[in-house]
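Continuing from the previous page of notes. For each protein in this section, the sequence appears first, followed by its structure tokens. Read the first protein now.
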Amino acid sequence: MILRVACIQPNAKPDLAANLAEIEHWIRAAHADGAQFIATPENTSGMHANRAALIASALPEADHPAVSRFGDLARETGAWLLAGSLSILLGSGKLANRSFLFAPSGDIAARYDKIHMFDADPLDGQAYRESATFERGTEAVVADTTFGRLGLSICYDVRFPALYNALAQGGASMITAPAAFTVPTGKAHWHVLLRARAIETGAFIVAPGQTGEHAGGRLTYGHSLIVSPWGEVLADGGEAEGFVAADCAMDSVVKARQMIRSLDHARPFTPSIFATSLSNG
């Protein structure tokens, strides 16, 4: 099976309506290009100048216009759609950084709340403390689709290979990694991490990213990637807004895993702390 996959690469604003209009335009363009699975990046609902603005913009899932909009687009196009992440207001007062997978019927096929919180200081002039605003997820998610099992992750999750291994062990032949990667970390690590996750799991990695300068001066790296199970970059979105697409031969997952059987060869072990000493003589 050949699956045409597209990553949407926008420059999200604080204005939800403007963001959805831009995303809708690029989803239709990607569908016209033949894409059957179309993914948008982290923070699809908006990029905000500060924490207060982000919290003020968040809505409960039942009231979020992006949820119904993506459902309508999935029905219209007949494609599988991934809303990379929306900021969802929880009853606790915190937010969920939540990814939604929509089936061609328009129904929600899966939800995933980002597990790993980006609390970091990447030397771009900003300090990031996601855990102050977001409630982390606790469950890895694999969804059944017409093109195979799809594993879900978000951005900073890419630095935690155990999650990707669990998704692959759960049957995922493709894993999504929508992101809003910073420029310093993107230049240093983005391609390396995504190619490594693909090679380790023998799965396709689909990683749509935000790009450019956003409210508050935050800069995101772009370079939306589609990576093969052998670690080859099939598509790279560069820094421009728009979409990038690639044809994914789904049988290459089986071939990669037959050539390198690391998923079968994984063994349990007991973590220990080893002390070493040097002898004199």
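Done with the first. The second protein uses the same format. Note its length before scrolling.
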Amino acid sequence: MIVHSLPNSILNNFIAQIRDEKIQKDSLRFRRNIERIGEILAYELSKKLNYTTQEVKTPLGTKNINILDEKIVLCSILRAGLPLHQGVLNYFDDAENAFISAYRKHNPTNHQEFSIEVEYFASPSLQDKTLLLIDPMLATGNSMVAVFEALKKHGIPKKIHIVSVIGAVAGIEYIDKFFPNDTELWISAIDDKLNNNGYIIPGLGDAGDLAFGNKL
């Protein structure tokens, strides 16, 4: 687990802005800040990937440069994952892309009880590729596990990286039980608590609604 808000960096400014209830009313700014967080996490994650040396020809000569040498698939959980996905894609622009929907279906008689419904799914083969699983909020961890189970029918990745913005301790502990031992979590901030509805406290609210508007 790599938490990038611990050292002082400009990343903390973006995290503060997406949490701020006044600033986050600007949905364009909220989306852009999530995207910028994705760019920072992608850059840091890129340092752990595999590279090969290639000769690059310039107008005046040649130069050997270490170039990324991995087949990468970015998979985001709709709809909240889209701005974060774009930020990661800005840096891994040759990556293949997958999209999957996962949402909470609440018990109509008890709103605190819910199941995770996975419906829409579009993905290339994941077999022996490096999977970056992208979701801005890692709350209970149920959505992440449900998505991981659904992805298995498309092949077994050689390596999984989870990219998230804010997580809860309980959610991180939960996914640790289901993902391979060498899975790496790249996250901007960790909060201690979940409320009775399974939302991160203090968190930032509903990332999907803040980015794209309220849903029915």
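What the second structure shows: Residues 2-54+63-212 form a domain with the Rossmann fold fold (CATH 3.40.50.2020). The longest helix spans residues 27-46. We return to this in next week's lecture.
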